[in-house]
Amino acid sequence: MYGEVILALNTIFNYIILSFTNNIGTLQVSRKRLLISALIGACIVVFIGQSILPMVLAFVVMTISAFGFRFMKWFRSAVVCIVAALFAGGLLTALEPLFSYMPTVYFASTSSVIAVAGLVLLQNRWTVSKQQSLERGLVLETTMTFQGNSWQLSGFIDTGNSCIEPLTGRAVHFIAWHAMEARIDDALKNALLSWQASNPYKLTMFPKELQSKLTVIRFATVQEKTVYGIAFRYDQWEVHGADGFFIAPGFFVLTMEANHFPQQVDVILHVSTLCQ
To answer: What is the DSSP string of 93-131?
Structure first.
């Protein structure tokens, strides 16, 4: 009976670790395969012994059985498994005095719940950190020139921004109003503030010399609302850095709805910026 309990506890713990690794690595391994691999690892430890060599052998066989024989894929998965095992093991060790007096069944159930809860929290934090790291890689420092004036703007390449000006097919970027407001000339500022989205094609309020550089476009917001906006053709847009380049000619739209901009940037750049 004791051996069966140890086998069940090892299998549960192994399955939790393998499931965490599968979710973190988006490996799409079936639950059945993970469970069989967890059982194989538990059997090796229980029937051969709990010394260092059987435990290492059990870990290698279990992870290869779960995630395959390709070395790099296995190696990355194994590293995540080790991190998860150390985290869950450390958590259970720290909390063990609180529930060690429980009967075996309740002890096993409580340990499993704690391990799962801890790894879910770790997975959420891991995912957030990974997303933030990817986002930081898409942040660029830029200089945009319009009407002879230049603005230093931090931009984020948003793969969800595929908005184009329909007549020319050129990209449309979205700039936070507060990033340009201070240096926009008064005539343009007053025209923008008096322009009405309910009558979008009435553009008489804009200076005549500027009307050839603007157009009205319709686009969908993050909230999936269809709205109209004024798109301006910029003169030049340079991206700084070791691999600096000039963004292809296009348009920008000023928006006051910039609270959702990631990384507190000034500009949501068109996805095509990735390919330049």
So the answer is: HHHHHHHTTS-HHHHHHHHHHHHHHHHHHHHHHHHHHHH
63 in Cβ contact with 81 (< 8 Å): yes
What residues does each domain of the chain span?
Answer: 2-136, 138-275
| 3-state secondary structure string across 186-229 | HHHHHHHHHCCCCCCCCCCCCCHHHHCCEEEEEEECCCCCEEEE
* Alpha-carbon distances of 159 from 73, 96, 245, rounded to whole Å: 27, 46, 19
Pairwise CA distance, residues 273 & 206, whole Å: 29
Task: Tell me the β-bridge partners of 233.
Answer: 251
Distance CA 232, CA 229 (A): 10
HSE, CB side, 13 Å, CA atoms: give it for residue 165. 21
Render 53-83 in DSSP notation, one character per residue: HHHHHHHHHHHHHHH-S-HHHHHHHHHHHHH
Query: How does pLDDT run along the chain (276 residues), one tens digit per residue?
Result: 556 767 877 788 888 888 888 877 767 788 899 889 888 888 888 888 777 887 888 888 888 888 888 888 788 888 888 888 877 777 666 666 666 666 666 666 676 677 777 777 777 776 666 555 555 557 889 999 998 899 999 998 888 888 999 889 999 999 999 999 888 888 889 999 899 988 999 999 998 888 889 999 998 876 677 889 999 999 999 999 877 889 999 999 999 887 788 878 999 999 888 676
Q: Whole-angstrom Cα distance, residue 194 to residue 113?
A: 59
> How does DSSP classify residue 265?
-
CB 85 within 8 A of CB 17: yes
- Domain 138-275, CATH: 2.40.70
